[in-house]
Amino acid sequence: MVNAEIITIGDEILIGQLVDTNSAWIAKHLNSAGINVYQISSVSDNAGHILKALDEASQRADIILITGGLGPTKDDITKKTLARYFGIGKMLVHQPTLDYITDIFTKRGIAITELNRLQAEVPENATVIFNTCGTAPGMYFEQNGKIYVSMPGVPYEMEAMLPKVVELLFAKTGQSAIYHKSLMTYGIPESLLAEQIEDWEGALPIHIKLAYLPEISSGIKLRLSATGDNKDLLNQQVDEEFGKLIPRLGNAVYGYEPDSLASVIGKLLTAKKASIATAESCTGGRVSHLITLIPGSSEYFKGGIVSYSNEAKMNILEVKQTTLEQFGTVSRQTVEEMALGAKRVLNADYAIATSGIAGPGGGTFEKPIGLCWFAVASPKKVASYSQMLTSDRAGNITRAAANALNYMRLLLLED
Amino acid sequence: MVNAEIITIGDEILIGQLVDTNSAWIAKHLNSAGINVYQISSVSDNAGHILKALDEASQRADIILITGGLGPTKDDITKKTLARYFGIGKMLVHQPTLDYITDIFTKRGIAITELNRLQAEVPENATVIFNTCGTAPGMYFEQNGKIYVSMPGVPYEMEAMLPKVVELLFAKTGQSAIYHKSLMTYGIPESLLAEQIEDWEGALPIHIKLAYLPEISSGIKLRLSATGDNKDLLNQQVDEEFGKLIPRLGNAVYGYEPDSLASVIGKLLTAKKASIATAESCTGGRVSHLITLIPGSSEYFKGGIVSYSNEAKMNILEVKQTTLEQFGTVSRQTVEEMALGAKRVLNADYAIATSGIAGPGGGTFEKPIGLCWFAVASPKKVASYSQMLTSDRAGNITRAAANALNYMRLLLLED
Questions:
Q1: pLDDT at B75
Q2: What's residue A175's pLDDT?
Q3: Nearest-CA neighbor of A375 among A325, A317, A311, A302?
């Protein structure tokens, strides 16, 4: 098996100001391509240190992936240092990158500076990997049978570039095939899920492995990874195994990666030619943010009301004052009136509503921090339930928004 | 200065299943104690690999901190491997740890197993650091003038143990101090900022270093790191340097870490005893989500309208039909009416509005993808501007929301 190493460059990692999330992202994708990550090292923005790390890594691995240090400022020295490592004196302007940078700045109405222009330069032995999300180009090098790839440290720039890098590496290394597919589930806790599917997991063929990947915002992802020679066959075998599992999990399954709760709701609404609206209190706009992250959501999303004040609940969502007085803002009655109100005033077929106490303040004995009510309304009915959330403010908001979307998904399925 | 290295052990890190958050946590605490982290390495649960990593680290650093691989199961081999590294054949039972483990299991009504008992054993050259949150003891070693500390990989167990470790290291090493402070800026592109402050950066004393840390959602963070003997003096010197810089950057400076654009708006509104509302189109709820992530935001945030349809813009925000027909939804006229409408219907003193084309669909020749209009309204006026955003849908939404918050901040400052 081919070995890779990841080197992340940046003082901010070594002083603990930044958690290195890039390494896990890269490692996951290399693994999918059948490339083993042997070691991950984080080093400082220092030429001597980077050179030493490159040297050590090239003794252990065949592929060295580097992130960080490609910005336009003085402390970004990766490009210069790589040129020095390869003994390259000459830098060349990569014209498509310079054109792209110029275009971005022109659009923004800002004059391009010498520092920006320098970003388009690469060592003459580099093959440029185009950066579609930023100004620093990625670079691919080969030397003494080893492959070196340098990528930006800004996560979304690196993430946009990585599929192209993995494709290049896969082609270069001629790996035996590996195939991954991930089933998305929401609503069954991890330990319960593990018990429920233990026998299925135990009966998996030896070349197919299972991983549990839980995340607050998307539930538990079940990833099957199959290795062998024939990718089509692996694909078929993985589908067969999931085919046995899915009927046992019922409507906890909502799709395969990259489906999200919001994208699945979008598909269900599109199929019904129906529209949706939101009324949010404790989730503060996160539910509508998740819905509108989906391209094309303007076709079915009418809009949302973030009713953070009782005034907004009454004046815009038409929640009755007597309801708020009698039952309080965090109650079944209020959240159902919010959902019905959003559906009516935004003229939608379906609506989602949330009302809860995200913390850290605002809790009482009867209505403690973490209590959250969820309601969904359809052309036929309104339904609601409550749950106690047990994380901090940001965690509670994240989970509440995911719960709300999942609740709507279940309503759309039965409707 | 004393150098430390962190080694995190675990296959789950190398396949990207787990983001290594322990390293950043440890690095931050070591830095506060004046101990420089030179490198971070993540290695597999393999004895040969761990031995090699220990050997390499001890050549570069004076202190080696290790996390992970201390559990009771077969794949946890750190303790055995450390004993082998130090050439220690004999393991001793640490009685307080054994008593503690026995106590935990007795309380849970579970019989203690041989595997649990083995967790209380440590190499005979180890000084035990008591684990108050779990069954695996921490261990402190000295050999050839180097210090080695082994901690559990479970974050909350490590975090509970770390202050004791830092105290030990601080006492052993008699460190010089290090002090960090980060200035938050928004609105000046990185390359322009670098040119603008080049002479200031060049004139920094040798013991004070600058780093640029850009992020879409928060602008560019300028971090000064000062090293020396006297922490109070360093604090004062860093403040003096920032004192020279701040007047040159004007209102691009919005605070010091951990201030965010949303938290600063919250403080400004609280000082004015004023309230705010939002009207979002392209940002789809992200602006209100960011505002409501701030604890206590319910004191000043009245609510928001996500007006994704023209219907919602007209019916709820009271944007005039003639405005939409004449100028379109993405226009100065519409976004200003949205801001004024949100202010009025949510009965707020201030309002933010956004309307744009986030992509990937929806662009036209006259109104291309990325075009975004921003408006802010105060008791006295309404103002607006437009910008071309150049990222993908998610990136455009992130930047548009940050721009909108910054625009409101600027309005609140001049008001």
A1: 63
A2: 64
A3: A317
Below-70 pLDDT ranges, chain A: 1, 175-176
Fold adopted by B3-173? Molybdenum Cofactor Biosythetic Enzyme; Chain A (3.40.980)
φ/ψ (deg, to 5) at A50: -65, -45
Sign for the pseudo-dihedral over CA of A24, A28, A33, A34: positive
- C-beta separation of A69 from A44 below 8 A: no
Q: Please give, rounded to a whole number of angstroms, the shortest distance from the CA of A289 to a CA of chain B.
A: 5
Contact B27, A13 (CB under 8 A): yes
Q: Distances from the Cα of A405 to the Cαs of A80, A261, A277, A290, in angstroms?
A: 48, 6, 12, 9
Whether pTM exceeds 0.90: no
Contacts of A242 (CB under 8 A, 6+ apart): A181, A183, A224
Query: What is the C-alpha to C-alpha distance for residues A75 and A95, in angstroms, rounded to an integer?
Result: 24
DSSP code at position B252: G
In this structure, which topology does domain B261-414 adopt according to CATH?
A: Maf protein (3.90.950)
Number of Cβ within 10 Å of residue A106's Cβ equals: 12
Tell whether A309 lies on the interface with B, counting CB pairs under 8 A. yes
Question: Which residues of chain B fall below pLDDT 70?
Answer: 1, 73-75, 108, 175-176
* DSSP one-letter code for B186: -
Residue B47, Cβ neighbours under 10 Å: how many? 15
| B407 vs B381: CA distance, rounded Å | 13
Task: Please name the amino acid found at residue A399.
Answer: R
Closest Cβ opposite residue A361 in set B283, B295, B302: B295
Residues of A in contact with B289 (CB under 8 A): 283-286, 289, 397
B177-256: CATH, from 3.90.700.10, 1.10.260.40, 3.30.530.20, 3.30.70.2860: 3.30.70.2860
